[in-house]
Amino acid sequence: MLSSAIRTSSSRRLAQSSPLQRHSSSSAGTLPRITERRPDETGRGGRASDAGVKVCVFGATGFLGRYITSGLGTNGVLTYVGSRQDEFAYRHLRPHFELGRAKFQFYSSRDKQSMADLIADADIVINLIGKYYDTKKLEDTPTFPYLKYSVSTSVHEANVEVPKTIAELCTEMQVDNLIHVSSAAANPDSSSEWARTKFEGEEEVLKAYPWATIVRPTQMFGHEDKLLNWFANMADRFPVVPLIDGGHALTQPVWVDDVAKVINRIVDDPEMFEGRRVDCFGPQDYSYAELARFVYDITGQNPTLSEIPVPVAKYAGNLLQYEGNPYMTPDLIDLWSEDYLPEMTAEEYEAQPVKDKVFTMKDLGVEATPIEKVAFRYLHRFRKGGHFLLAGGYH
After folding, report:
1. What is the CA radius of gyration of the chain?
2. Best exposed site among 8, 177, 186, 297 by fewest CB in 10 Å?
3. In sequence order, which residues have a C-beta less than 8 Å from that of residue 57 and are 6 or more positions away?
4. Is 50 exceeded by the pLDDT of residue 185?
5. Is the CB of residue 317 less than 8 Å from the CB of residue 332?
6. pLDDT score recorded for residue 138
7. Contacts of 143 (CB under 8 A, 6+ apart)
C-alpha cells in the first residue's frame, strides 16, 4: 500500500533543518567542499559523512545523471538510485559514493508502488527521465512477414506520464522538494513531439506538485553527448553528413557538468527554489553548420556536408529510427530544424524583476563553460591514428 510509505514532513523538517540551512542564499550558491565539516555531522566530512539529507534520483543512469550523482556522493548525500535494468546499467555510479551512502533499487515506471518504495523517506526527488524516440520491440504476426514493430515505451509516456506519476507520488508522500529537469526547447507549438511533450510534462508536474523546481537546460555537451559526438559518429559511419535545412537553426549548448552543479546547488538549499524555474545555457549560440565544422576541425574527419530539406531528411530518419539507439529519427529532424535557445537573452534575464524571477546558472554561482574548453577532451579520439600522427619525428 502507498499509505505505508507516507509520512509527515513536519517532523523531518524540524529534525533536519540545520543541515539544509547551513548554506543559505547568502553563500552565493557555493556547494560544501569535501574538506568542509558540517555542524553535528557524523564521519570525517564530505564524501565520508552524513549530509543530513536524502535524495531520490529517477533517471540517474542517463547522460546528466552520472554527473549529478557524482556531486551528491562528493558531499555525503544519502542517495536512492532507481533503475529499470539490471546492476550492469548502474555499476559505473557505485564509485561515486562511500560505502553505505547509496541505495540502488529496481523499479518499473508502470508500477506505482515500486516507485513509491524507491522514494521511501527521501527529502528531495530529482526526475531526469526523458526519451527522444519510441522504444520499439518485435512482435509475432499471423501473416507475412510474421513480424512487426510495436511501441514499448513512447515519448509521451516517458516525458509526460512518468513525470506526472512522480509528482503525484511526491505530493501524496509529502516529499519536501521535487526537481524536474525539462528542456529549453519545451514548447507546445513546436513541430517536434519531443519538445511538445517536454512542455506538457512540465505542466503536469506543476499541476500535481505546484512548488516543484523546473530546470530547463539547452542542449548539453560532454563526453557522452549526442550533439558533438553525433557529428563525429555520423562521419565515421557515412560519407555524407546531413545538415537539416542547411544547418541554419541555432543552438546554445551548455556543458553537462555545469547543469549538474546547478542541480546540486539547488539540493543544498531547495526551499529557495520552490516553485521557481532555473534556465541553464552556454555562453554563445552556434548554428548546427558551425558546430559540424568545429567538430571536424578537431577530429580531422572530412565528410561531405550536405544541406538537406526536412522532408528529404525524414526519408533517412524513417529508416534509421529502427536502430536500438537511433542516430536520427523524424522527430529529431523536426527538433534540429528549429532554434534551441533559452527563452531570453542574458541581458533580459538580468533585467527581470526579483518577484517571479527565472533564475540562471549565474544566479547560482556557476559560470558557463565555453564549448572550446571541453570538446577536444573527448573528440580527439576520432582522429585516425590519434594525435600522434601530427607529431613529426615522434617515432
Report:
1. 22
2. 8
3. 65, 68, 69, 72, 79, 80, 81, 82, 125, 126, 128
4. yes
5. yes
6. 83
7. none
d(CA 175, CA 169): 8
Note the helical H segments in 269-372. 288-299, 310-320, 330-336, 346-350
**H or E segment at 10?**
helix 10-21
Contact 229, 294 (CB under 8 A): no
Taking the alpha carbons at both ends of the chain, their separation in whole angstroms is 68
Whose CA is closest to 69, among 94, 43, 52?
A: 94
Three-state DSSP class for residue 280: strand
The predicted structure's pLDDT at residue 135: 85
- Report CA 104 to chain centroid distance, whole Å: 19
Question: 0.90 exceeded by the pTM?
Answer: no
Give the other-Cβ count within 10 Å of 36's Cβ.
Answer: 14
**Cα-flanking dihedrals φ and ψ of residue 299, to 5°?**
-80, -20
| Sign of the CA dihedral with 382 first, then 384, 385, and 387 last | negative
> Residues 247-271: what's their mean pLDDT?
95
In the numeric block, which cell numbers belong to residue 393?
A: 619525428
Other CB atoms closer than 10 Å to residue 10's CB: what's the count? 9
CA 330 to chain centre: 22
Count other Cβ atoms within 10 Å, centred on residue 118: 24
Task: From 129, 130, 152, 134, select the one nearest 322 (Cα to Cα).
Answer: 134
Identity at 118, one-letter amino acid code? L
DSSP 39-91: TT--BSSGGGB--S-EEEEESTTSTTHHHHHHHHHHTT-EEEEEESS-GGGTG
**CA 271 distance to own-chain centroid:** 21
DSSP state of 322: T
- For residue 101, list its beta bridge partners: none
User: In the numeric block, which cell numbers belong to residue 103?
Assistant: 541505495
Q: Is the per-residue pLDDT at 394 higher than 60?
A: no
Could you give the 3-state DSSP secondary structure of residue 326?
A: coil
**Residue 83, burial from CB neighbour count under 10 angstroms (0-12, 13-18, 19+):** buried
C-alpha 256/C-alpha 250 separation (Å) is: 19
Whether residue 9 contacts residue 38, with contact meaning beta carbons closer than 8 Å, is answered with no
